[in-house]
């Protein structure tokens, strides 16, 4: 009996070790193939530019899905299409494996952009700016968790989770620690119908019911989640 248990234990250890080595190999191959992505998305998937998304820690299946959409021109991007078109499915999976294995960086404390106010208007005090930012993030938190019943805006938490960690089996993306500017652009694109590669245009239907203030508020809130 003891001999059988030892045999089973050794087999499990060997199987686990082999799987770990295989995963490391895919991650290493993905890192090499992702080198051309570093200029926009950062070497480890943590983009330093707010207009380009962070890819670190994103679900592998979601990344593959987006690369396929870029390649098939189902998700329009003059910048991404030429890069994706040269990738086969194995390369997409390896790149996605690499990025999904990286840790996303936390964002610095958010700062509201300078408003395009009248030059003659009195300058806002730091206290007033902070109060406006706190109020905006509070609005975003409420919208993320509860939605808006009066305007039939669904709560983001239903698909993206309580901490914006996403839903891996359903390929719903992780959103926490993402750049607010990128989130604002993405929701605006969904609202305008410029991005609609989601099944049944679910995000388009939600975003069309959101005001620009809603989009800004929820994007700033999500950017603070870790």
From TrEMBL:
Signal peptide residue numbers: 1-23
Gene Ontology molecular-function annotations: electron transfer activity; heme binding; iron ion binding
Disordered: annotated span: 109-128
Cellular compartments annotated: Periplasm
Post-translational modification: Binds 2 heme c groups covalently per subunit.
Keyword flag Translocase: no
InterPro entries from the UniProt entry: Cyt_c-like_dom, Cyt_c-like_dom_sf, Cytochrome_c4-like, Cytochrome_c_Oxidase_Subunit
SUPFAM superfamilies: Cytochrome c (SSF46626)
Domain Cytochrome c: 25-103, 135-226
Example of a GO cellular component annotation carried by this entry: periplasmic space
Metal-binding found in the keyword field: yes
Residues annotated as binding heme c 2: 156, 159-160, 203
Pfam families attached to this UniProt entry: Cytochrom_C (PF00034)
Residue numbers binding heme c 1: 37, 40-41, 80
Domain of life according to the entry: Bacteria
UniProt keyword terms in alphabetical order: Electron transport, Heme, Iron, Metal-binding, Periplasm, Signal, Transport
PROSITE patterns: CYTC
Protein name per Swiss-Prot or TrEMBL: Cytochrome C
Taxonomic placement: Bacteria, Pseudomonadati, Pseudomonadota, Gammaproteobacteria, Methylococcales
């Amino acid at each position: 009996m003891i001999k059988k248990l030892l045999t089973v234990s050794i087999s499990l250890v060997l199987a686990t070790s082999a799987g770990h080595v295989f995963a490391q190999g895919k991650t290493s191959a993905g890192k090499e193939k992702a080198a051309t992505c570093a200029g926009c998305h950062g070497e480890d998937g943590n983009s330093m530019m707010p207009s380009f998304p962070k890819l670190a820690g994103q679900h592998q299946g979601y990344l593959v899905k987006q690369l396929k959409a870029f390649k098939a021109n189902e998700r329009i991007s003059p910048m991404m299409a030429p890069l994706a078109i040269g990738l086969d499915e194995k390369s997409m999976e390896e790149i996605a494996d690499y990025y999904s294995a990286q840790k996303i960086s936390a964002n610095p404390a958010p700062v509201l952009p300078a408003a395009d106010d009248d030059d003659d208007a009195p300058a806002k005090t730091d206290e007033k700016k902070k109060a406006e930012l706190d109020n905006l993030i509070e609005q975003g938190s409420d919208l993320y968790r509860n939605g808006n019943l009066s305007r039939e805006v669904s709560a983001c938490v239903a698909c993206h989770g309580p901490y914006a960690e996403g839903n891996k089996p359903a390929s719903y993306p992780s959103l926490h620690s993402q750049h607010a500017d990128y989130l604002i652009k993405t929701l605006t694109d969904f609202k305008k119908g410029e991005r609609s590669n989601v099944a049944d245009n679910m995000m388009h239907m939600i975003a069309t019911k959101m005001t620009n203030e809603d989009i800004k508020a929820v994007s700033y809130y999500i950017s603070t989640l870790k």
